[in-house]
Amino acid sequence: MPKKALVFMRYGPYRPLNLTVEHRTFRLQGLLDVLQRAGHRVILQKTEDWDALELIVNGEVVFQCKISDLDFGGDGKLDPLCEMAKLAVQLAY
Fold first, then answer.
1. Rg of the chain on CA atoms, in Å
2. CA nearest 61: which of 52, 70, 69?
3. Fold exhibited by the domain 6-90
4. Who is most buried in 7, 21, 40, 47, counting CB within 10 A?
5. CB 7 within 8 A of CB 87
6. Per-residue pLDDT at 18 exceeds 80
């Protein structure tokens, strides 16, 4: 199980606080920080799936959730979804 993985993060548009629907990365920041601190390289990819987040390692979806379920801002240390995603990436091989 290599410590460093290439992770493709596919994320869709969502509507925060009844604003316009757009691809935003504010809620992804904590997850990005957690994965990068663990030594993984993350590539962001936009998708048209509404409020969707998928982590793909070696062509396989290893984690998925709604973007709106992630904590807004922060470093991801206190968000349980970020820890679950990091574990899923580590177990992907």
1. 13
2. 52
3. Glutaredoxin (3.40.30)
4. 7
5. no
6. no
